[in-house]
Amino acid sequence: MTTQTSKRSHNRLPTEVTSFVGRRHEVAEAKRLLSQSRVVTFTGPGGVGKTRLALRIAADVRRAFPDGVWLVELAALDDPAMLCQTVAEALEIRNQSARPCTEVLVDHLADKRALLVLDNCEHLLHDCAVLVETLARATTDLRILATSRQPLGAAGEQTLAVPAMTLPDMDGVPLPLETMTHYDAVRLFTERASAVLPGFAVTEANHETVERICRRLDGIPLAIELAAVRLRALSLDQLLDRLDDRFRLLTAGSRAVLPRHRTLRALIDWSYGLCTEQERLLWARVSVFAGSLDLEAAEEVCSGDGIAREDVVDLVIGLVDKSILIPDEQGQAMRYRLLDTIRHYGRERLEESGQDAVMRRRHRDYYQGLAAEADRLLFGPDQVAWFTRLKREHANLRTSLEYCFAQGETLAGLEMATDLLYHWITSYYLHEGRGWLDRGLAAESEQGEARARALWADSWLAIIQGEIAPAEAMLAESRALGERLGLARVLAWVALFSGVVALYQGEVDKGIELYKEAVRRYRGIDDPMGEAFTYLRLCLAYSLIGESAAAVEAGERCVEVCDADGEGWHRSYALMALGIEAWRQDDVVRAAELEKESLRFNRSLDDLLGVGLNLEVLSWIAAVQRQYERAGRLRGALQIIWESLGSVLSSYAYLMRYRDECEVRIRKGLGEPSFRAALKRGARMPCDEVVAYALEESAPEEERAERPAEASPLTPRETEIAQLVAQGMSNKEIAATLVIAQRTAEGHIEHILSKLGFSSRAQIAVWAREWHRAAEERDAAGS
Question: Which CDD domains does UniProt cross-reference here (predicted)?
Answer without folding.
Answer: LuxR_C_like
